[in-house]
User: Fold this.
Amino acid sequence: MKLKQIKLLSLQIPLCMPIKHYLAEHTYSENLVVKVVADSGVVGFGEGIARQYVTGEVMESSLRFLQDHLIPELNGFHFSGPPDLIEALGELFTEENRAQAPAACCALELAILDAAGKTWGQSVAQMLGRGDQPLIYSAVIPMMSHPSFHRLLHLIRDMEMSYVKIKVGNERDTEILSLAREILGPKVDIRVDANGAWSSEEAGKRIAAMMAYGISAVEQPVPKKDLQGLRRVSEQVDIPIVADESLCLERDAEKLASLNACQVFNLRLSKCGGILAAIRLYEIGRKKAIAAQLGCQVGETGILSAAGRQLAVNRKFLYLEGSYSSYLLKNDIVNEPVEFGPGGVARPLAGHGLGVSVNEETLQRLAVMYEEIRL
Assistant:
């Protein structure tokens, strides 16, 4: 397989409701989509979502890095099969490249994997070697008004979700946890995500107060650069601490593991720079007995949701997040619904590549910028 054309698109997609947590509030999603065309005419799509407050990347820097660095390196690339492709992608999406533009790396990698899977008649999960893990997704509740929170809790209860993550980091934390436990009942697994809202000293007190409501884990209690503070919190509490904003690259994973700073890695494909990078982080954690959670970015379309699904069946995760596009986006760009059903249960995606097809009419309608590049 050889690539002959690449198209870059910047999308703006309105959300069905504002999504708020301690670090940001979103009313629309800004998504980078990459379309690749192989010499056979096979097309592949990938997606990335930049998060400046996590990785320093914005849409403009994503596009520039693709144009100036990544795409020129694809000239002359020829892939004969999955092992050859995976090795070549590892050489292209180095840790240094992913440090500069992880969403750009993710979008291009997924597009190439999608096209390759369609070319060779395999799903991405099959190309990675395995694919039999069960899929049970979590509900994630952002910061919101009391009436909206109350309605969403009832919807989650009616859907019989087993796992729920709640965004925390303000004076209402114990109030909302009390209400969540009252409505959801004692058996639902409830964990919280502070998005770096607290100092390590404050985190210990906050978590102690939350323990009365049976929380199962705490994600990113301290700012992302405070690894020593994260370690102190991990030593103070008896439930797992999840590293998210603190974990983007292999160097971060190695440092967190050496400090015993957390018990769980949160792997978001766009944050980490793609599926192959997420697997490397997963393996670093596994060797140190650190579990993994598959996270996601707010506003993912079915492309990133499908990519998450391909990874989710391929490795064992403590919690799964994602497949929210039909719940959060006013418009999705894929034809197949990539969502979970009652209980958060989802099925592996049938089909080759990522397992979804893109509605190019909707894609063009949502695009605010596009550029075609011939190789």
About this structure: Residues 2 and 78 are 5 Å apart (CA to CA). The chain has a mean pLDDT of 96. The radius of gyration is 20 Å.
